C-alpha cells in the first residue's frame, strides 16, 4: 500500500505495524506514575534533579517526563548525551564512543538518566560507570521500556515503565532506520518491513 493511501486511512506508519503493544494513553499514564515516584523519592533534594537524556531515542520520553515531573515537585535541569555503541548489525558490543558529552559539571548533583529502552544493558552499564566517575551525589535511571529477555548485563534501573517482549518494536522514540520515532504508541513492526532493508 502506498504512502498516500496509508495517510488517507490514518498515519503513514500505521500500515507497517503488525500490532500495538502499548497505547498512547498507557504511555501517558505511566509517565505520570513514574514522575510521581521520582518526585516522592527526591522531595528533599534542594538543588533539583539533573535529567540526562540519551539521544536520540529518549527525546520523546524526556520531554513528556520533564513536564510531568515539573508538575509534581522538584525543579529539573536538562542535559543531553549522544553515544554510539559498536557492534554487529542490531546488537551492541558494549564498546561505547561519546558523540556528545554533557555541557556542565555534575559534581554533587543528583543525576537521573532518562532512557527510552534497556535491552542488552551493555551501553547503559558503561554510561552509568562514566557518569559515576564524575562525582555526582547520585546517579539513577528511569527507563520507559525494558526488554528483560534481552538483558546481558544487569543495570540498576530504579524506575521502569513497561517490560516488553523481545520483538522488533518501534514508536515513541524507538526507531527502525531513523523512522517511526514520532509514533505516539509502541507497536511491533511487520517482518516484511525490516526484511526488505
From TrEMBL:
It comes from Actinoplanes lutulentus. CDD domains: PRTases_typeI (cd06223). GO terms for molecular function: guanine phosphoribosyltransferase activity; hypoxanthine phosphoribosyltransferase activity; magnesium ion binding; nucleotide binding. It catalyses: GMP + diphosphate = guanine + 5-phospho-alpha-D-ribose 1-diphosphate; IMP + diphosphate = hypoxanthine + 5-phospho-alpha-D-ribose 1-diphosphate. Its main location: cytoplasm. Pfam families: Pribosyltran (PF00156). Its EC number is 2.4.2.8. Its cofactor is Mg(2+). This is Hypoxanthine phosphoribosyltransferase. The keyword Metal-binding applies. PANTHER family: HYPOXANTHINE PHOSPHORIBOSYLTRANSFERASE, HYPOXANTHINE-GUANINE PHOSPHORIBOSYLTRANSFERASE. Keywords: Cytoplasm, Glycosyltransferase, Magnesium, Metal-binding, Nucleotide-binding, Purine salvage, Transferase. GO terms for cellular component: cytosol. It comes from the Bacteria. It is found in: Cytoplasm. GO terms for biological process: GMP salvage; guanine salvage; hypoxanthine metabolic process; IMP salvage; purine ribonucleoside salvage. Gene3D superfamilies: 3.40.50.2020. Belongs to the purine/pyrimidine phosphoribosyltransferase family. InterPro entries: HGPRT, Hxn_phspho_trans, PRTase-like, PRTase_dom. Pathway: Purine metabolism; GMP biosynthesis via salvage pathway; GMP from guanine: step 1/1; Purine metabolism; IMP biosynthesis via salvage pathway; IMP from hypoxanthine: step 1/1. Residues 26-176 form the Phosphoribosyltransferase domain. The lineage of its organism: Bacteria, Bacillati, Actinomycetota, Actinomycetes, Micromonosporales. NCBIfam families: HGPRTase (TIGR01203).
Amino acid at each position: 500500500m502506498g504512502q498516500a493511501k496509508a495517510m488517507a486511512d490514518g498515519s503513514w506508519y500505521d500500515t507497517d505495524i503488525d500490532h500495538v503493544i502499548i497505547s498512547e494513553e498507557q504511555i501517558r499514564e505511566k509517565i505520570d506514575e513514574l514522575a510521581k515516584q521520582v518526585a516522592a523519592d527526591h522531595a528533599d533534594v534542594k538543588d533539583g534533579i539533573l535529567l540526562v537524556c540519551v539521544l536520540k531515542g529518549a527525546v520523546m520520553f524526556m520531554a513528556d517526563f520533564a513536564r510531568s515531573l515539573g508538575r509534581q515537585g522538584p525543579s529539573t535541569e536538562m542535559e543531553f548525551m549522544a553515544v554510539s555503541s559498536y557492534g554487529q548489525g542490531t546488537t551492541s558490543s558494549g564498546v561505547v564512543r561519546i558523540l556528545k558529552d554533557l555541557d556542565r559539571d555534575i559534581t554533587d548533583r543528583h543525576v537521573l538518566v532518562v532512557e527510552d529502552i534497556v535491552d542488552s544493558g551493555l551501553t547503559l552499564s558503561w554510561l552509568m560507570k562514566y557518569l559515576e566517575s564524575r562525582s555526582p551525589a547520585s546517579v539513577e535511571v528511569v527507563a520507559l521500556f525494558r526488554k528483560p529477555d534481552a538483558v546481558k548485563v544487569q543495570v540498576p534501573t530504579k524506575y521502569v515503565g513497561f517490560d516488553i517482549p523481545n520483538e522488533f518494536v518501534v514508536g515513541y522514540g524507538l526507531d527502525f532506520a531513523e523512522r517511526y520515532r514520532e509514533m505516539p504508541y509502541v507497536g511491533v513492526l511487520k517482518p516484511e518491513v525490516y526484511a526488505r532493508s
